[in-house]
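Per reviewer request, we include the raw input and output of the structure prediction for the construct analysed in the revised manuscript.
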Amino acid sequence: MNLSSGRVILTSFGLNTTGIVSSISAALSEAQCDILDISQKIMQEFFTMIMMIDITNSPKDIKDMQEIMKSIGEKLKVKIYLQHEDVFRFMHRI
């Protein structure tokens, strides 16, 4: 399994604050990642978002991106998880 390229799934949630989508999107753009799909919802004071991202053309690998997202999450006080799509595929084989 090559985790350095392909599609990854980003999930984010926490208390809603200004700039969550902007901060995550800016970091992805800077890393030359392509947002393929996005679903975002505000549920009262809570923020949730799922993105499908293509990191194939990025000079960063998934580990680098996980560290970047961890830093953004800490700054914004939200949880951000980044997992390769194969994790989800293999989960359903068990």
